[in-house]
Amino acid sequence: MAGSVNKVILVGNLGKDPEVRHSQSGQKIVSFSLATSDTWNDRQSGERRERTEWHKIVVFNERLADVAERFLRKGRKVYLEGSLQTRKWQGQDGKDNYTTEIVLPRFGGELTILDTRHTEEGEQSGGYSNAPRNSGTRNNGGQAGGWDAPQSNAGLDDEIPF
């Protein structure tokens, strides 16, 4: 195969508030857990079933890390794009340990807040992206890494029958 792709797209809810730390060089690193759920009807019992998968997310992108630190809280629904990475380290017992994470790298990735909760500053939160201008990505408003202002419903007729 001439090339390969390592891209992960997830839509889910934060399991807890983001954790912020800094590297030795002072770079901000934000991590959080994201839950994605599948639901289905059990064929035998007819009961509604649900399976939740938990994903570890690590944000190295400085701009997206600032957004995550400022606006993300437990329960928020987000859309994100990153890549899958597995890290290996040795524990105190000398055993090799592995963890697989979705990484939003220093120069890439996308993070969009999907729900419209109000922030402490009274603004509505929107989406953030590190995608280039006019890339066709959702919700970045053509601004590289900028604020994606929520769409206003001002002037729309509230009596639309759907």
UniProtKB/TrEMBL annotation:
GO terms, molecular function: single-stranded DNA binding
- Keyword DNA repair recorded: yes
Region (Disordered) residue ranges read 118-162
GO biological process, alphabetically ordered? DNA recombination; DNA repair; DNA replication
Q: CDD domains given for it?
A: SSB_OBF
Per the UniProt record, one Pfam family is: SSB
Q: Which GO terms describe its cellular component?
A: nucleoid
Q: Where is the composition biased (Polar residues)?
A: 126-141
Annotated keywords: DNA damage, DNA recombination, DNA repair, DNA replication, DNA-binding
Q: Where is this motif: Important for interaction with partner proteins?
A: 157-162
**Which HAMAP family is this protein grouped with?**
SSB (MF_00984)
Its function?
Plays an important role in DNA replication, recombination and repair. Binds to ssDNA and to an array of partner proteins to recruit them to their sites of action during DNA metabolism.
Q: Which PANTHER family match?
A: SINGLE-STRANDED DNA-BINDING PROTEIN (PTHR10302:SF27)
Relate the assembly described in the record: Homotetramer.
Q: What is this protein called?
A: Single-stranded DNA-binding protein
